[in-house]
Amino acid sequence: MKHTPSLIALLVVAGCSSPPVRTYLLPTPAPATAHSRAILVGPLRLPAHLSRSEVAWRDSQNTLNFDEFSRWGTTFDIEALRALAAQLSQAAGTQNVVTWPAQQGAPDTLRITVDIEQLDVTSAGPCQLRARYLVHQGTDNALVASGITEARTTLDGEPPAAAVVAYGQLIADLAQDIARHLP
Fold first, then answer.
1. Which terminus of the chain has fewer CB atoms gathered within 10 Å of its CB, N or C?
2. φ and ψ of 94, to 5 deg
3. Domain ranges for the chain
4. pTM for the complete prediction?
């Protein structure tokens, strides 16, 4: 059988194809049904290694993995802010939640800023979150609440899909804790 150069090139390219890219979003609850207080969420600060589009997790204390074929729908910092706002909406019982950089609305709007100091999803141990948050209210920006949230979960399965679930659980735990301290 005679092989033409174009047929050989086609077979070589077909044999070298990459796996398909998976795109993930953090899980969010159904929207709240009430329209009570207004909440502005953000800015949200994360460890620098998470502000990217690839799904990341640790294999050990000192090894980070970035899966080039498993990506967030946006960058993780934007995805985490979106998920936190949705989780806060549910936990606080209000649909009136927007994300930074939106302008503060009503004079009694609550503005929540979050600094996530640690957010580690680890395949070889516990997944952990440590975050500080401040809640300001009104046009005078009065501090009405603050706190530190520490949350843990475990990876149930193999990364990257199980890592997405773990990140979602840690963000949901953060939202629940913040909602408990809202005025």
1. N
2. -140, 140
3. 43-180
4. 0.86
- C-alpha–C-alpha distance, residues 45 and 81, integer Å: 9
Question: Using CA atoms, how far apart are residues 104 and 112, in angstroms rounded to an integer?
Answer: 11
Q: Are 146 and 183 in contact (CB under 8 A)?
A: no
Q: Which residues of the chain have pLDDT under 70?
A: 1-16, 32, 34-35, 104-105
Exposure of 144 in the CB half-sphere (CA atoms within 13 A)? 19
Check: CB of residue 90 under 8 Å from CB of residue 17: no
* b/e per residue 8-26 (b: at least 16 CB within 10 A): eeeeeeeeeeeeeeeebeb
Question: What homologous superfamily does CATH list for 43-180?
Answer: ABC-type transport auxiliary lipoprotein component (3.40.50.10610)
Question: What pLDDT is stored for residue 174 in this prediction?
Answer: 98
Using left for φ > 0, alpha for ψ between -120 and 50, and beta otherwise, residue 99 falls in beta
Phi-psi region of 42 (alpha: psi -120 to 50; beta: other; left: phi over 0): left
Angstrom distance (rounded) from CA 130 to CA 135: 17
* CA quadruple 168, 108, 104, 43: dihedral, nearest 10: -40
pLDDT at position 11, please? 43
